[in-house]
Amino acid sequence: MAELTALADGTLPAERRAAVEARLAASPELRALVERQRRAVAATRAMASEPAPASLRGAVKAQVGELHARRARTWRAAPRLALGGAVAAVAALLLVVTLGGGPAGPTVADAARLAARAPSGPPPARLDHSRAKLAAGVEGVVFPDLRRSYGWRPVGERHDSIDGRDATTVFYAKGDRRIAYVIVAGSGLPRPSEAPGTVRRGVAFQTLTVNGRPAVTWQRLGHTCVLTGGTSRVELLTLASWRGGGTLSY
Q1: Cβ-contact 93, 47 below 8 angstroms
Q2: pTM of the predicted model, to two decimals?
Q3: Domain check: are 181 and 226 in the same one?
């Protein structure tokens, strides 16, 4: 159960990820628990991006020691994933407020900047005989095959690390234009506060500009995705919200 919590917040060691994901694949109940945990972590990080008043900072600093003791007692007395994860999320939020520096880790803009790099490997193949999925993904979130419906063919792939987070990018081309689709491992990154938002098919998307190029960001299964490159915001939104006849999970 502790490893499930670590998988949800992005701290699970890489050598244990395959075994834990295999357990998830065999259990809808465990997948539901992990998804709820990822949503809780994402919500906590979003809350942490809001500035806190000085009075709250002082109160939190005085209570950090007590919180650690309470967390230890709760961990022994209750289900680890539900209560232990909730206390850990609160502890993370309180520490962020105390330090006053906002959420740590990579940002959506950091992920979007990976699109400026060149592919380091060949494009992923189509997954089996699927018309919607490629044989590449991050922690269960697969990349879409955009050829059949939109004419964007995969032309390369690369793997990076941003502030300790693994990130995979698949590059697509259509004529002389190129776009990049980035998926970041671990729980969702803080949403850009000033970026305009829109909702399509029940999913919240935000549009922004990074290095002079339009970009769209959203979350799939608790993971941050970014689509950016040489096309319009309207087309990026269309590609990002495509579900391939319902075969892609969001």
Answers
A1: yes
A2: 0.61
A3: yes
Band (pLDDT 50/70/90 cuts) for residue 158 is: very high
**Structure confidence by residue, pLDDT tens digits, 75-84:** 555 555 444 5
Q: Point out which residues pair with 7 in neighbouring strands.
A: none
Nearest alpha carbon to residue 103 among 213, 2, 197, 224: 224
Looking up tokens 């806190």 gives 52
Per DSSP, helices labelled H in the chain are 2-9, 14-25, 28-48, 54-77, 85-99, 108-113, 147-150, 233-241
The token pair that represents 41 in the structure block:
């972590």
DSSP, res 125: P
Residue tagged 């490997």 (tokens) = 121
User: Residue holding tokens 């709250």?
Assistant: 56
CA distance 226 to 57: 33
CA distance 171 to 176: 13
- The pLDDT value given to residue 55: 54
Of the residues 40, 75, 99, the one at which a domain ends: 99
Query: In this model, does residue 141 exceed pLDDT 60?
Result: yes
Instruction: Give a yes or no: residue 246 inside a domain.
Output: no
Q: Strand 153-162 and strand 141-144: pairing?
A: unpaired
Q: Are residues 135 and 220 in the same domain?
A: yes
Distance of CA 238 to the CA centre of its chain: 20
The CA-to-CA distance between both ends of the chain, in Å, stands at 24
Task: Let me know: does 179 contact 229? Beta carbons within 8 Å.
Answer: yes
What is d(CA 109, CA 93) in angstroms, rounded to the nearest whole number?
22
Give the tokens for residue 57.
């900072």
Lookup: tokens for 243: 């579900």
Residue 69, classified by CB atoms within 10 Å of its CB into exposed (0-12), middle (13-18) or buried (19+), is exposed
